[in-house]
């Protein structure tokens, strides 16, 4: 897992690296600019591309000047530079790169307060106006220039952070920012990249290593950790010879109602495909024919058998499509000591009967999307605030709270907030949450502690969707296809051939 740090901590890491290694600040800027250029050249391999680099006069601007020079050295001959001289300060590294730039044929245009901006004929704009040094919302000349660039509709590749986007903290939906198609960010993605409020400022982001001291960064205090593929490889337990279905646990899925039987089937199917040894569905009897037809591997349990099931199963998933039945079922579930996943209609019941939150067994996993979360814990104005509440509630109640979104935040009872990097907009469709619930229940049934089950489940769920997009360029993926992609995704991650 990688620690996600604030802009202030990045400056600390910068300082520490410069003090403790032979690398000077100007060389670190050169590394960063070179790393940017490497990705930029993959995005725009045509060296005839006309590029406009817009630089401020701080270190983000210094990067911009170095990038201009490095592109020119790599035969990008149509590079031009604008410099926004709206402040009085020039960083030392900006000045040093300015001196280097004067030795090149690159045309430079400087803009002062109140100046008009000419049209931008170039094909692509590199945004090096302001980076992680942003300390207030954009206004005046800065805002005018940003709006001018946005109005051209030209693709923007931002250096480190799109100008105007705070790297961390509360993001205001009314914030003016440069709208970047790509952001090439240094050493770590910024926390705000994971909040939906940043969507208008960032379409894609890339992260490049610039040589900051990793050991130092990993020791910095931060609640936020980014899940990586290596975490999945460490957590996943390979299937050993001579194991049998009993080795992989028995999962009970409590789900479905007359009109929402599909949710139950999806959860059961995901449970099956995620490796539970046995899966039993507690669904209304009228769903039995569908279950037997679609999922012959899954067993059925009726109302009369339910009391006998509690002790026979290893994990429970409750909620998908459950409707009003949630109200009487949750009582039985909370009296077991089984690890459990609580989703959908079971969460709605909890939000209407909040005293039940106190009765949930420790380390139960709650999987709300934004609306369910706010119904449970109150309305929030920003994702930053919502994530802070998730942390407080997870610690206070000793629960695992998965706040679902394109990037799911996992609030753990120890106060850590994990960020899941997998998943994509093609997955934004009904049934996707039911699949996640089935997957999490399967991993709990296999004996993974809740902490590991959520990491595995969340990461794989998104990775299966990402794999489908990568393989077939699909723009929409039905939940069923994600289910079917789970075993191969797990295999590719953990059993590479
Ligand atoms: N350690 C690293 O990650 C490295 C980062 N590099 C680059 O440096 C920038 C951060 O540079 P910094 O000089 O600290 O700040 P900026 O260039 O972002 O801003 C300059 C300056 O502008 C003023 N300012 C802030 N907000 C506003 C505003 N809204 N309106 C007007 N003026 C504003 C403030 O005084 C700032 O100090 C980082 O993003 C990377 O691109 C290094 O190149 C490599 C190491
Ligand atoms: K920038």
Give the helices and strands, then pairings.
Layout: E1 2-3, H1 7-20, H2 25-43, E2 51-55, H3 59-73, E3 79-84, H4 92-101, E4 108-111, E5 124-128, H5 140-152, E6 156-159, E7 180-186, E8 202-208, H6 214-219, E9 224-226, H7 229-235, E10 250-254, H8 261-273, E11 278-282, H9 288-294, E12 299-301, H10 306-309, E13 315-318, H11 326-334, E14 340-342, H12 344-352, E15 365-366, H13 370-377, H14 383-397, E16 400-403, E17 409-411, E18 417-419, H15 432-445, H16 450-472, H17 479-494
Helix pairs in contact: 2-3, 3-4, 7-16, 8-15, 8-17, 12-13, 15-16, 16-17
The structure holds ligand LP7C6HRI and potassium ion.
Potassium ion binds near residues 128, 130 and 158.
Overall form: elongated
The overall pLDDT average reads 96
**What is the number of helices?**
17
The overall number of domains is: 2
Structure class: alpha/beta
* Sheet with the most strands, sense and barrel status: 11 strands, mixed
CATH class call of the largest domain = Alpha Beta
CATH architecture of the largest domain: 3-Layer(aba) Sandwich
CATH topology of the largest domain: UDP-N-acetylmuramoyl-L-alanine:D-glutamate ligase
Please compute the radius of gyration using only Cα atoms. 26 Å
Number of strands: 18
Can you give a write-up of this model?
The protein has 497 residues and is α/β, with parallel strands linked by helices. 41% of the residues lie in helices and 15% in strands. It has helices at 7-20, 25-43, 59-73, 92-101, 140-152, 214-219, 229-235, 261-273, 288-294, 306-309, 326-334, 344-352, 370-377, 383-397, 432-445, 450-472, 479-494; strands at residues 2-3, 51-55, 79-84, 108-111, 124-128, 156-159, 180-186, 202-208, 224-226, 250-254, 278-282, 299-301, 315-318, 340-342, 365-366, 400-403, 409-411, 417-419. It has an 11-stranded mixed beta sheet, sandwiched between helices. Strands 4-3-2-5-6-7-8 form a 7-stranded parallel beta sheet, sandwiched between helices. It is elongated and about 85 Å long. It starts with a strand and ends with a helix. The structure holds ligand LP7C6HRI and potassium ion (K). Potassium ion is lined by residues 60, 127-131, 158-163.
